[in-house]
Specification:
Length: 193
Amino acid sequence: TNAATLRNSIINIATDVRLLPTEVPTTAPTLNSATPFAELVLNNINTFTFNDTVNDGLIEISRNQENDWRYIQAGEQLPVQQESLQVILNNFSLIRGIDQVATDDLVSLGLDAPQYILTAQDFDGRTFNLQLGDQDPTGSFYYSLVDEFPEVVLIDSDSIASLLNLFVEQPPLLEPETTPEATPDPEATESSD
């Protein structure tokens, strides 16, 4: 009888339970600002673009399934050091953030019209986007927007300096091969006198 009483009590409790609507909290996407592009798989990247919006400089680096790289600047394919392209992608994946800040004032940070826009896309169609605004007054970091995250990410200046240098100051282009011009033999010119 104790078992029957316990069973009836459980049935009474179960039928008396009222299901309350559950609220599912909506969460904004989060970003690991310390390593914003940690999910980037280097050997899966097929396109990388560097857009200098101020100087109208668009550079596209792309590769096909056979790993043949192309470096296109201003619509022209240029010879490039293949190893440097891997360095560019590696540098992009290693960009470090310092912090994230919520602000609606993108103008004062140079993010209403960012000077540099860097985008990597992989063979699966995933896109990794970085928009760089102004540097802070000390030069320690850049204000940036990463992918579609609403907060401004403070990108460590040192972590992006070499990447910017590869595009702005020292592009990884191969020097065209030059053939030495034929110089007249001094003895040949003297004997003709």
